[in-house]
Fold this protein.
Amino acid sequence: MSAQVLPRLKAGYAAADITPAPGVTLSGFAARRNQPSVGVHDPLTVHALALEQGDQRVLLLSFDLLAIGEPLVRDIDRVLDASIGNSFPSRVRILSCTHTHSAPATIRLIGCGVEDEGYWQLLVGRTQDAAARAVLSLREARIRCAIESLPGKNFNRRILLKDGSIVMAPHAQELVQRTGPGWDSFVFLRFDEASSGASIAGIIHWAAHPATVCTAFVSGDYPAGLCRALQAKEGVPFMFLQGASGDLSVPFRDMSFDDTRKVVEGIMADLPPLAWREAPEETPMALLSETIALRYQRPLPRQALERMASAMRDISRGEPGDPSDIRILANILNVPPGGTPDPEMLRHIASILAEWAQQAAQGARGTSSAPALEVKVMRIGLIVFAFIAAEVFVETAYAISRHFSRTPFAVVGYCAPLVGYLPTDEALQEGGYESEYAYRFYGHPAAFGKGSEQKLVAVVRRLAAQLGLAWQGSKSEN
């Protein structure tokens, strides 16, 4: 009996400009204090890649945005349902963000940007345009991939000091007990027309927080700059897929555009000529998905929340405040031990915590019903991607991929709708910004409970196994 011949893969790509006009607030840094943006340093883009192989279809959208929340996902799905829903329904769509901290607010973060209805309408319309053009441009394609290891381009920002505290600010080495791992692997894919060899699109996957720039100017940060540099080098438009970088950052000095430029130039200078490897035509494309029910940790009692709301409200009005409350604010602001927080920032962060504590005390988000976490796993060519709608840690990426060593595994965070940080159990135990404070900006009543990250890892591994990846772990592992 002859082997089944797979249909030829088809790929189509399009992009659209999603740069806002000056005046919208930017998301990602409370330090901006919701002040209007004053200009555009470099443009923002939505990239759309449509893939088809027989009855298997995937629409991958990559946005130069911080994150996309559930309300905006509904708006995007509505217009896509009306235009391409018959061929690319919502279950095969993947919305991913580069996580730049210099784009308009497209997810609710208390004190970190104000949602702008006019911008949302522009974004939805441009997304529909890019997606429709990508689908219309589908043609037979071949896939090639390349993987390079570039150490030292990022660092784990969670620093455990010998006193047991977790900090993100640099400290003297003699005070440091442990720093976590980085992520060295750069994964590249490119799709070229099968008949002519003409380029269609490329993908780059790496992991590091794009928080290089904190100004009042719009910017795609280093991911957008890196895509432009790769396009100039390879002659193909690239889209960036952000990895598991919940605790990874790039080295920077003064959070300027010069820092962004140096990040891109440093990567490009050390990146050797890419040794493209063509995927066999018999390699199938497949996508599986699952939704994970998350649970919160036990929230603070109502009385404690009401006390916090009152105390933080007083500090936001310029009153001195209790030293214990000031220490909380200084920790969020990443103030080195013995340092003095900026008074304006102290008041702004206090106003955010006051708003959060009041909402939590009133049960605005509830205490038992946490948002569902969406996970999609796609096998394409020689690569497997895990798309996760959370800010996951690099340790999670290692936990997922370490026993699939025969197949490159790329964990993509910041998919939509984003639920926020999903720390490891160890990080929840140790504390620090991602575990103790970040959930408050997202409006959650508490951090996600222990075991959440382990549940995610088990689901991704199971989906990967269903796609035909050989599991090489021990039977005792989940």
Remarks:
- Residues 81 and 89 are 7 Å apart (CA to CA).
